[in-house]
Design a protein that fits this description.
The complex is a heterodimer of chains A (about 270) and B (about 350).
Chain A lengths: L1 H22 L8 E12 L2 E2 L7 E2 L5 E18 L4 E3 L6 E5 L7 E8 L1 E10 L3 H5 L8 H7 L3 E2 L4 E12 L7 E8 L8 E13 L6 E7 H6 L16 E3 L4 H10 L2 E7 L2
Parallel strand pairs in A: 1-13, 11-14
Antiparallel strand pairs in A: 1-2, 1-7, 3-4, 4-5, 4-6, 4-8, 4-10, 8-12, 9-10, 10-11, 13-15
Chain B lengths: L1 H28 L32 H11 L12 H4 L47 H10 L8 H10 L1 H10 L7 H13 L7 H6 L9 H13 L14 E2 L15 H4 L8 E2 L21 H11 L18 H12 L4 H4 L8
Antiparallel strand pairs in B: 1-2
Helix pairs in contact in B: 2-6, 2-7, 4-7, 5-6, 9-12
The chains are: A alpha+beta (about 270), B mainly alpha (about 350).
Chain lengths: ~270, ~350
């Protein structure tokens, strides 16, 4: 008798629950889906082509880019209602490499279904992660080494590698340039950027939106801070921008080098 | 009454026998070496400051510590299969490269700096002569990958760990049900190195009033002179204030090691190096970042009369340090009390 009574009560609750879930919110967006972030490298108005393409800065310097790589980290997605989904930190470190198309599409799994209106991410490795020491980094060290993104004299990473050759009106024989950012003894040089999406990315269990992001290599050298490669090649041995205060200027430029071009919701 | 007491007694004896037998059995059966009774708890020595390392975040387990020890002494992590961490960090020399001014790594490549001791790293806020690393877990990264040290490759290390049965066993025991990764490798090395605490020198026991240890009159005088004339940099019971200073060495033009400048590119950091601890200093010759001096006499002579007025010379050394011959003898007597034989002979840190 007793157990039968319990059963009836339980059934009653179950029916109530069913009723509520049917009647109160018939457009509820539930479950989890995926979101793709595509990082597409451009130079000003043109798609970036490595090695062969001549790319002009506003200051008259002309670059041929051999390599462009950077660490994308700490991805957060904001819904239209203001709630933020933080992608698990330990899985949120990626290396985007212009020479390897496989690396340019970051697939985020387990994203709660919803309409996302902005994406925030870091370039580099943040102070919090450094303070954790080894914890939570998985095999990122091995990945970074395989991609030549180790900052070899310290236990850190190159956050951004931007290399190639350049000429200027006065430097007619091409010289090398190497821009590497990373943590130095004076600054972390980690930066974050938040990009508003032109239309919401509607993550559903059955829909994986793709957010197409342009990373503008031109802005690395002429965002808010205009950086002349020639001025950084005083000895004529090439512009080696890898340390000191100028990395802070590059980092500020990098934080403003990204924009979302469009969103696919299909 | 008597009978019951007897019975109780015989029960007691029986249970002691059983316990002993079980103990014997388990000590025979479970482990293949005498390494069973290993103490891996971290306790701050009473005369030490608070540690910087988060011991609770990476608590040492026996398997983790064993793994760390194996990694520390495994030359296969380097590109030539020979140079391990322990190659340049020898226990008997306070984990320095005994007798080497600078060390040689793989392919007989010569470094530019003298090996630093590995001891009490859990109390430091930065590492290396130039402070380029500031977390103990990450210290090994530099040596493992530096082309002139071990020149290792993490992918190759991971495949070694994935195929070597001993590594597979240790990783599984230390980090059950977790993937073998560089993270776990560093955590194991962190467990091993963070427990390398040297805190049982004669000086420590005297300071903690343990075992009735006393300093001789000469050693005590040496400590007084030391406190007046050396302890502004070699401060506290770590014997370093962990600052970076130019101590007036001749600059080797072939190396021109710029010290901390390398990490900061700040002009005022040129030629500045970490103030090293003086614990076990009697065992860690040669001295200075470039291993220039082979004896402590040479070091003391440098401070009294050898200071070079180079860029960013430390203000406290501009006029040298005035030390009489007697004071030098006393200081050396005191420094001798910083040798910690228990640490230098601790089997937990030995290769076998």
């Amino acid at each position: 008798m007793k157990s039968l009574h319990k059963f009836r009560v339980a059934m009653g609750f179950a029916i109530l629950a069913l009723l509520f879930s049917c009647s109160s919110d018939d457009e509820a967006i539930t479950g989890q889906g995926k979101l793709n972030l595509e990082f597409d490298q451009v130079f000003g108005g043109a798609d970036l082509i490595l090695r062969t393409q001549a790319n002009a800065l506003s200051n008259g310097e002309v670059l041929k880019v051999d390599e462009l790589k950077y660490i994308v980290s700490n991805i957060r997605l904001t819904k239209s209602d203001g709630t933020v989904f933080t992608y698990p930190k330990s899985e949120s470190y990626f290396i985007v490499d212009e020479s390897d198309i496989q690396t340019q599409l970051l697939t985020l799994d387990g994203v709660p279904a919803g309409d996302y209106i902005s994406v925030t991410f870091g370039i580099g490795v943040d102070q919090e992660q450094f303070n954790l020491g080894a914890a939570g980094q998985g095999n990122f060290l091995a990945l970074a080494e395989a991609e030549s993104m180790m900052w070899s004299w310290s236990a850190g990473y190159k956050f951004l590698v931007y290399e190639g050759t350049f000429t200027t009106p006065t430097v007619t024989d091409a010289e090398t340039f190497m821009v590497h950012t990373g943590r130095t003894g004076i600054a972390y040089n980690y930066t974050e950027t938040t990009l508003t999406l032109p239309e919401a990315a509607a993550v559903r269990t059955s829909v994986t939106p793709q957010v197409h992001i342009f990373a503008d290599a031109k802005r690395i050298l002429e965002g808010p801070n205009a950086i002349s490669l020639e001025e950084n090649s005083a000895t004529g041995l090439g512009a080696m921008i890898m340390g000191g205060a100028i990395l802070g200027e590059v980092t500020t430029n990098v934080s403003q080098a990204f924009q979302v071009n469009h969103v696919h919701n299909d | 009454m008597i009978k019951t007491d007897k019975m109780r007694l015989s029960k007691k004896i029986a249970s002691i026998f059983i316990a002993t037998a079980v103990g014997l059995l388990s000590s025979c059966g479970s482990d293949d070496d005498s390494y069973t009774e290993i103490d891996l708890s971290f306790q701050r020595p009473a005369n030490f400051p608070a540690p910087t390392y988060d011991y609770a975040a990476n608590p040492a387990t026996r398997a983790g510590f064993e793994l760390g020890r194996k990694l520390f002494y495994d030359g296969r992590l380097s590109s030539d299969g020979v140079v391990s961490c322990g190659f340049c960090h020898e226990q008997a020399a306070a984990f320095t490269h005994h007798g080497h001014s600078v060390s040689h790594g793989v392919n007989e490549q010569i470094g530019t700096r003298n090996t630093m001791p590995i001891q009490n790293l859990g109390f430091y806020d930065s590492f290396m002569w130039d402070g380029s690393v500031d977390h103990l877990d990450l210290v090994a990264v530099v040596a493992l990958t530096s082309e002139i040290e071990m020149n290792g490759n993490f992918q190759q290390m991971l495949s070694l760990f994935g195929t070597d049965p001993e590594y597979k066993r240790l990783f599984e025991q230390a980090f059950p049900n977790e993937q073998i990764s560089t993270e776990k490798m560093l955590l194991a090395l962190g467990q091993f190195m963070s427990l390398m605490v040297s805190s049982n020198s004669k000086f420590d026991k005297w300071q903690r009033a343990e075992d009735g240890v006393t300093l001789t009159a000469e050693e005590e005088s040496g400590y007084e002179v030391f406190q007046q004339k050396c302890a502004s940099c070699h401060a506290g019971n770590l014997f370093t204030d962990q600052s970076f200073r130019n101590n007036g060495l001749v600059i080797n033009p072939f190396v021109n090691d710029l010290g901390k400048y390398r990490t900061t590119q700040i002009e005022t950091d040129k030629y500045k190096f970490k103030v090293p601890s003086l614990r076990n200093v009697m065992k860690s010759a040669p001295y200075m970042h470039d291993g220039k001096f082979r004896t402590l006499d040479a070091v003391l002579d440098h401070y009294t009369s050898g200071i070079q007025q180079t860029q960013n010379i430390d203000p406290s050394l501009i006029n040298g340090i005035q030390l009489s011959e007697t004071e030098k003898v006393q200081i050396k007597a005191f420094l001798n009390t910083l040798t910690d034989e228990e640490f230098l002979n601790d089997s937990r840190f030995a290769p076998f």
